[in-house]
Amino acid sequence: MEALNQLIKVCADFIWNGPILVMLLGTHLLLTVRLRFIQRYTGKAIRMSLRPDEGAQGEISQFGALATALAATIGTGNIIGVSTAIALGGPGAVLWCWLTGVFGIATKYGEALLAVKYRTRNKQGAVVGGPMYTIERGLGWKWLAVIFAVFTVFATLGAGSTVQSHAISDVVHTTFGVPVWASGLVITLLTAVVILGGVKVISRVCEKLVPFMSLFYILGCLAILFLNRAYILPAAATIIKSAFGWQAAAGGFAGGALMIACRYGMARGLFSNESGLGTAPIAAATAQTRNPVRQALVSMTGTFWDTVIVCAMTGIVVVSGMLRSPEAYVGASDDAMTRLAFGVLPGGQYVLTVALSIFAFTTILGWSYYGERCMEYLIGAKGILVYRLVFLAAVFLGAVVSLDIVWNFADLMNALMAFPNLIAVLLLSGVIVKETRYFLWEDHLEESGDTLPN
Length: 454
What we know:
The protein is mainly alpha-helical. It is built from 21 helices and two strands.
């Protein structure tokens, strides 16, 4: 197992220490420029996400699609993932994680727009879409679409299941002493009950859980920041200095150099908000929306909430805690850092346990849907049952395996599936700009532009 872990880590490090960083950041910046800083429409997009697009074609509401995508993104990446980035890349990783989110809004917008534009119906008449359909129908490259779908299926067994169930079992064991196998069994059974209902059941569950738990977690972070208020500005300064290699990481943690902070910050940023990854567009494609731009605007708010707000708050909470009690963090494992940060809040360990457990559970639900759609694309509806059984086994296995191999596998799969998606987004960026010009810049948002077959 250790040899396998090292092999996976070497592969992940090779990809993340150059190719994917350049391609990911390049795509974010290119689309930000070509779309005239689409981020400025975030307020409009948030208001739009709260209003259903009446009479439009699709499987679930715009907010339901956003909630499903947020369920898959707001999870361990926001909590444990941020502390992992700080432990490995120094406090500066927080800034790179945040910047990945800010500029990633443009990429999330672009890939969601393409997913709606090139969506179609399956043999059962249900609306389906995502990068595999964008690549096949937009570029005509079936082979690349298959590669994306294969990598996504494997990614759901890493980032989408094992990472999440491990996070739940670990925090529940630490807080309440529950054996990890028992937590794993409960998580697996609950997951099975929900995913059997398909995307409509998943979206209904996510619509109820995600907003409540997001507010619950943010209030907890605000309470901690109030207690650490004397360290907020020093924490911000530490993050900025460390991000550019001006200051080594404090407390004995590795990192501080520019490339190290950038590598781990962007890796966790991508894991957290999935901008450029290609997963969120699978949910966006099912939304009831009259044209691609409307849902693209709604979808891009997911990155804003996930990384620009939640990840940033987690990062400030952890770094301010490091400055407040540096001796407590020396030698602390990456997954223990957030628990230490929440320890200053009375009952903070329970707040963290509840928030992390529900966030991770909803992430499992969202990723299970992504995997199903990719498996269906590869071998048809007959593969869905087989996939569900394998996915549920991965959920249970994740609760009891080593965290290192889980995270390394997730990093590798995320990078591999991002490549085909980013290629499609870059080559079809002209389509993204053309659609945006007509529907948004020329003020035709209320018009129908959906080419979905009846």
